Amino acid sequence: MKIMLNELEKAQGRKQHLEGSIDMDGIQIPDVSFDQFVFKGQAEKEADLVLVQGEISGVIKTKCSKCVALAEYIFNTPFEEQFSEFPVEEESEIHFFQGGKIELNPYFQQTVLLEMPQTFTCKETCKGLCPTCGTNWNHETCSCNNERIDPRLADLALFFNKDDK
Fold first, then answer.
1. Does residue 23 contact residue 105 with C-beta atoms inside 8 Å?
2. Per residue in 44-68, pLDDT tens?
3. What angle do CA 81, 103, 59 make, to 5 degrees?
4. Closest by CA position to 134, among listed 84, 66, 75, 81
5. What is the mean pLDDT of the segment spanning 9-25?
6. Is this prediction's pTM over 0.90?
7. What's the pLDDT score for residue 48?
8. CA triple 131-132-133, angle to 5 deg
9. Three-class HEC string of 37-70
10. Which of 19, 42, 45, 135 has minimal Cβ neighbours within 10 Å of its Cβ?
11. 8 A C-beta contact, residue 21 and residue 40
């Protein structure tokens, strides 16, 4: 998605409605796919700045981090960036652009990467897999003993087990 500065300056009230799909092909994460990503918002010219505001939405598909089943995450996040044709300080949050056009796709992709969860689950109540036999606890139970004892307290457990004999 591009903003052409000359079109924005001609727009009524110097505001332009923006709506369209986002190209997510540039993001390559193993076992993660990005579907139906769109941006809805507006661009506004104020003095030397171009302000772009709106919302990014889409669907992230990947494997559940607990049970490895397919997980779909509905993604919605606000988007707001400022752009200027004049060079700005490196530490500034205003982005410099040249040539009378602003390519928004890299900024959309960056926002998605920063705002997406680091782990995904198929549902909030996912029980995961048995670490011993691999049974999916969401569908069935197993008889494995998965009791974990803190290694720092293992000798204390031996002390109490000695009294049982």
1. yes
2. 988 888 999 999 999 999 999 999 9
3. 75
4. 66
5. 87
6. no
7. 84
8. 105
9. EEEEEEEEEECCEEEEEEEEEEEEEEECCCCCCE
10. 19
11. no
> At residue 9, what are phi and psi to the nearest 5 degrees?
-70, -30
Q: What is the per-residue pLDDT across 135-153, written as a single tens digit (0 to 9) for each?
A: 999 999 988 887 777 778 7
- Structure confidence at residue 162 as a pLDDT band (50, 70, 90): low
Phi and psi at residue 28, to the nearest 5°: -115, 100
Terminal-to-terminal C-alpha distance of the chain: 75
Distance CA 100, CA 6 (A): 7
CA 10 → CA 15, 54, 76, distances in Å?
9, 21, 31
For residues 73 and 62, give the distance between their C-alpha atoms in angstroms, rounded to a whole number: 8
Judge whether 101 and 74 are in contact, CB under 8 Å: no
Q: Are 48 and 9 in contact (CB under 8 A)?
A: no
Beta carbons of 32 and 61 less than 8 angstroms apart: yes
- The 3-state secondary structure of 11-38 reads CHHHEEEEEEECCCCCCCCCCCEEEEEE
Give strand pairing partners of 38.
Answer: 21, 57
Rg, Å, the chain Cα set: 25
